[in-house]
Design a protein that fits this description.
alpha/beta, 5-stranded mixed β-sheet, 15 helices
Length: 358
């Protein structure tokens, strides 16, 4: 009997040891499962957090061009999309009837980069749009023309006195009509101005409801091919300004890297367009709805390549603004310089070969 407690203690200790071992094993299993679960949860959380960054790219909206332009080529080639992808941007190309509609959208945050003639930005500045002029272009005056019906008795600009002339208000057609009339001693008030957007003006002109139409390509060539209109005068000797690419101050301040990439790729497209007449024609035939041979002929109407913003460019733009104010077409005097950057700021976003053209 004296040995019983010893045996009892031994078995009791063994049971306790087994229970402890089971507890430790169970605890370890629970701990491992918890850690794995936490780790998996953490990974899922990280993946969920990363997914929106990868999926939700920012968008830059650049106006679609239906002219025989480098901007149209840039869209078709897709090089800008490749350039902006590492920056987290994708490109959308919304379409607008003309420059004034673009700048209305720019002001309403429906567009990020516009391409217009000289006058739309001035009218926009007069309306309070906080725009920034990014770059300018050559004149390409021959790509804008004053059309009259094929059988019209009008033979010279002076013959338009008292007649109805259609154009998009605040457009290059509006500006060149003023200059054309002034060249023969007439004023804008000497004709009946009919403000119509290009698609509506096209219908009115085709139906003989107006006596003239100041418009750009490809409307001019289409009218000639359909034998509904002929060119009375083109802008070759009238135009003294280039087009402008513009954006809002907010977009410029937030994304100068995007703007720099855009201008660099645009200049490349400009140079390629200049040297590849046949390829450009094939590329843009579906866009312009004109055949390749016709587009090749039209190619000579355009001057290609960006131009830097200089003091001469700013001074000329101010001259145009003052003209519109003197004609009562804008409600207040505009200081166009409010929309221009400093030379140092332009140097940071303008392609080096464009800056070299100064």
């Amino acid at each position: 009997m004296p040995g019983l407690p010893t045996k009892f203690n031994f078995w009791q200790r063994l049971k306790i040891a087994r229970r402890s071992l089971l507890f430790v094993v169970g605890y370890c299993l629970v701990l491992s499962t918890t850690l794995l679960s936490c780790n998996a949860s953490s990974n899922n959380t990280q993946q969920q957090a990363a997914a929106p960054i990868n999926a939700a790219k920012q968008v830059v909206r650049i106006v679609r061009s239906k002219q025989l332009s480098a901007l149209a080529v840039l869209e078709k080639q897709g090089n800008l999309e490749k350039r902006l992808e590492p920056l987290g941007f994708k490109v959308e190309w919304p379409e607008f009837a003309a420059g004034p509609q673009q700048l209305e959208a720019l002001n309403a945050n429906g567009l990020d980069i516009a391409s217009t003639a000289e006058s739309p930005p001035i009218f926009a500045q007069a309306a309070g749009t906080p725009l920034v002029y990014l770059a300018t272009t050559s004149f390409s005056g021959k790509a804008v023309s004053l059309l009259v019906p094929t059988n019209s008795p009008v033979k010279a600009i002076a013959d338009l006195k008292g007649k109805k002339v259609a154009f998009q208000k605040a457009s290059i057609g509006h500006y060149l009509l003023v200059k054309a009339l002034e060249s023969v001693g007439l004023k804008l008030s000497d004709v009946q101005s009919v403000f119509l957007q290009p698609p509506d003006a096209n219908v009115a002109f085709s139906q003989g409801k107006v006596d003239g139409w100041f418009i750009w390509e490809p409307f001019v060539t289409r009218a000639e091919q359909k034998k509904v209109g002929r060119v009375l005068v083109d802008g070759g000797n009238l135009r003294d300004t280039g087009n402008f690419y513009s954006t809002t101050k907010q977009f410029y301040q937030a994304h100068p890297d995007v703007i720099k990439a855009f201008l660099e790729e645009l200049e490349k497209a400009d140079l390629w367009t200049k040297e590849h007449r046949e390829e450009v024609a094939k590329l843009l035939a579906p866009v312009t709805q004109l055949d390749v041979p016709t587009l090749e002929i039209m190619h000579s109407k355009y001057d290609y390549g960006l131009r830097p913003i200089t003091e001469q460019v700013i001074a000329k733009q101010q001259e145009v603004a003052d003209k519109w104010y003197s004609l009562g077409q804008i409600p207040k005097k505009v200081n166009v310089r409010d929309g221009f950057l400093t030379p140092e700021e332009y140097a940071k976003i303008t392609p080096s070969d464009v800056l070299a053209k100064k």
